[in-house]
TrEMBL record:
NCBIfam families: HAD-SF-IA-v3. It comes from Grylomicrobium aquisgranensis. PANTHER family: 2-DEOXYGLUCOSE-6-PHOSPHATE PHOSPHATASE 2, PSEUDOURIDINE-5'-PHOSPHATASE. This is HAD family phosphatase. Coiled coil: none annotated.
Length: 236
């Protein structure tokens, strides 16, 4: 685990935020995307299509849609169409979840450094953050890139910790899904689980695993209290 050597650096506090479902109110879009795509092709989508595709990568999902519903279209054509739908959503539609701007502003005022670790596309996230006015809060937006890593291992968090020059025990990870919560906790980070309606079935396990669970980033005072941040001063 990457850590800093001096006492000043060891006291530096950082936050690593997930994007979709934590900062961005985007999970509903992702859940509806397969059905919307099929309906745009005049194909009646089964009710469980999102669950069927949930654990597939985008290329795998497109291959499945090609095989099951659109044999006349190549998987690559399907990928391009779906990618265009995703790009439009991040460029124009997706919004912040409640409380995000206030929390980020408050953390910045306290001198706490922040970054984003997400498995979504980096350019799309950066474009969306610029549109929503939160890009300047982050030291970096960290994504797998060409490395095929996901949140089953701590690589993205280690990269975030390195960028922010923080130690793991002074780095807080915010995420709305169970796998990253477990990964970050096991790797020695302080974990704040954010309850999102789309992960409702995992809430009990998230509560067992995380150091703190909140109903959203709107619970700024609860988050500040857990982090030991005095909301009325820059002392922490």
């Amino acid at each position: 685990m990457t850590g800093m050597n001096t006492s000043n650096e060891n006291r530096r506090i950082g936050c690593i935020f997930d994007a979709d479902g934590t900062l961005l109110d985007s999970m509903g879009f992702w859940q509806a995307l397969p059905q919307r795509f099929l309906e745009s092709r005049q194909i009646a989508a089964p009710a469980d299509i999102s669950k069927v595709l949930a654990d597939m990568s985008l290329p795998e999902s497109c291959a499945y849609l090609h095989q099951q519903y659109l044999s006349e279209r190549s998987a690559e054509d399907i990928r391009q169409e779906i990618t265009a739908m995703i790009r439009q959503a991040y460029a124009e539609q997706i919004t912040l979840k409640p409380g995000v701007l206030a929390l980020l502003s408050g953390l910045q005022e306290k001198g706490i450094v922040m970054c984003v670790a997400s498995t979504s596309d980096q350019l799309l996230l950066e474009m969306c953050f610029q549109r929503l006015g939160i890009a300047s809060f982050f030291e970096a937006v960290i994504t797998p890139g060409k490395e095929n890593t996901d949140k089953s291992g701590p690589d993205l968090y280690v990269r975030g910790e390195t960028v922010m020059h923080t130690a793991a025990f002074n780095t807080y990870v915010f995420d709305d899904t169970l796998l990253p919560v477990r990964t970050a906790k096991k790797a020695g980070y302080r974990v704040i689980a954010v309850r999102d309606v789309w992960s409702r079935s995992d809430w009990p396990l998230m509560e067992e695993t995380a150091d703190l669970c909140v109903d959203g980033l709107v619970e700024r005072d609860k988050i500040f209290a857990f982090m030991g941040v005095n909301k009325n001063s820059k002392e922490f």
